[in-house]
Amino acid sequence: MKLFKFFIAILLCNTIMSCSNDDDMESLDGQFGNLVIKFDNGVEDQDFIFGVNYSKSANESYQLETLKYIISNIELTDADGTTFMYPTDDNVFIVNEADANNAGEIWITLEGIPAADYTKISFGVGIDQERYGLGAEGQGDFLQTAQDEEMLWSWATGFRFIRLDGVYSDNSVTDEALNIHMGSVGTSLDNYREVSLDLPNTVLVREMAEPEVHIKADISLVFDGQTSVTFSEGYSQVHTDETTTPIIADNVMGMFEVHHVHNN
């Protein structure tokens, strides 16, 4: 009899927990909330600071006066594998270090996110060919934003996906010009890259909460990432070249990681 009562108690407990979980999920239906993504640029384990000299491979060093890049196509995946792509018209941003707050962070606030438990975030670096194929008028307000931010060569050529301007030095030169303006070249050279990052803990988007995802971008990996490049061997001026730009694009793809998550 005791064993029977114990079995019944366990069954009731599991039933209540299951109903409670179902109620929790059902209670999220129709709810929407905001999500803040914080981009934090650094160099290895250091904070990035304009005008500071940073060392890299091949006995070279660099300092920057401009650091900005385009993020687009932000997509979230929940615990069930369901994906949510932020609305296309608003799903493109310029992360400009000059706009960073006192903590060195550039905030992107996504509004109207379906309430869910999200476990993954993905995004593109640059402008994909489908968006580019919409033509100049199809870019909406972003075309003017890109022009104002000097992230557009010309419409026929396309966008700069990342812009790093400064100087470099090595054993033979000092303060030589450094300009990394990697992007696609119309439809002839596609340097758009997608990044997918697992979240270290679940992001709980709710109607009355605004969680934050803190993404670190290690700028040193632009030069010493998947491939190490040398400024003196053609990588001090990267613009539309079909050899150098894809290498920089692949390096940029690997510079992001989720550092931590705040569920507020």
TrEMBL record:
It holds the Pfam family MbnP. Residues 33-231 form the Copper-binding protein MbnP-like domain. It comes from the Bacteria. PROSITE patterns: PROKAR_LIPOPROTEIN. This is Copper-binding protein MbnP-like domain-containing protein. It comes from Flagellimonas eckloniae. The lineage of its organism: Bacteria, Pseudomonadati, Bacteroidota, Flavobacteriia, Flavobacteriales.
